[in-house]
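Team,

Forwarding the record for the chain on the shared tracking sheet. I've put the sequence and predicted structure together so nobody has to dig through attachments.
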Amino acid sequence: MKIIEAMKKLKDLTRKAADLRAKISSYCADLDTDTPTYKTEDDQRTQIKGWLQGHHDITREIENIRVSLTKTNCTLEVPIEMADGKTVTKTIQAWILRRRELSRMDLEAWKGLTNRGLKDQAFRAQANAEEVKIAHVRRYYDQEDRDKKVELYMAEPARIDAALEVFNATTELVEV
């Protein structure tokens, strides 16, 4: 099974399990004056047992797929060409982490490099001095480097998504 197929199957199994839980909850009891929904009391019990068994089977299948996905994500490596032309190879799990959190954190760090709203300003060294000096804004970073890094980290999530989409569609799930 391909990784993408496993992810779609998980979504479908989760939906089926929710549907079974709703049925179990709705039909697990009634008043003895009511007619059982599924013909007789025994048929109703059998139906509930069948749904519980079906739900149990689904949760075991979900478990197996998720463990296989975790193993796949932690073992398979994916090379991705970044905006700066370099190819970086990491596990799927590392790329997911970069996509969800770390690239945004790096972006915010580089975006934090600003002039802080400071402007060059005139001042007098002494209150009664006639000479006016100019205090210039001093930056402790390279603006060109900052701009390149901001662009790199802004583009990184889309590059990761594109590469993983192809990888997930073409790569077999590692079975447990």
